[in-house]
Specification:
This protein is an all-alpha fold. It has a domain at about 1-65. It is about 60% helix and about 0% strand. The protein has 3 helices and no strands. Helix 1 runs antiparallel to helix 2. The termini are far apart.
């Protein structure tokens, strides 16, 4: 399975580079840049390059080989269970039916709880 995936990703990278080259060549070698035909060929080349580049980029992201700025990395737990073990300081937040609420709702509720504190 990994050989097929490697061949697919290689084909996608080559196709993306070819369409990107098509867009660049069309932009550089054309006499009039703002013609309808030239803008269509450039837009088509860039769109197809993006289409073929998505698959290898998503594969690299899922394998953890593509570092994305702004993404937090998970903290690995220590095997001994001592300092690496993370515990929740508050009980889980439940809705009216007893289900756990999503993380975004927890964040909203935490912000609301902080702003409600008033000095008497």
């Amino acid at each position: 399975m990994s050989k097929e995936l490697g061949i697919l990703n290689l084909f996608c990278v080559i196709a993306a580079l070819a369409f990107l080259a098509l867009a660049v060549i069309s932009a550089v070698l054309s006499g009039d840049f703002f013609t309808t035909d030239n803008l269509f060929i450039i837009a088509f080349g860039l769109l197809m390059a993006l289409l073929f580049a998505v698959n290898p980029l998503l594969y690299l992201k899922s394998e953890g080989r593509l570092p994305l700025p702004g993404m937090k990395r998970s903290i690995p737990a220590v095997a001994g269970g001592g300092a690496g073990q993370l515990r929740a300081s508050t009980p889980p937040l439940l809705d009216a039916k007893g289900r756990a609420v999503p993380p975004d709702v927890k964040a909203i509720m935490a912000r609301m709880g902080q702003s409600e504190v008033k000095d008497a």
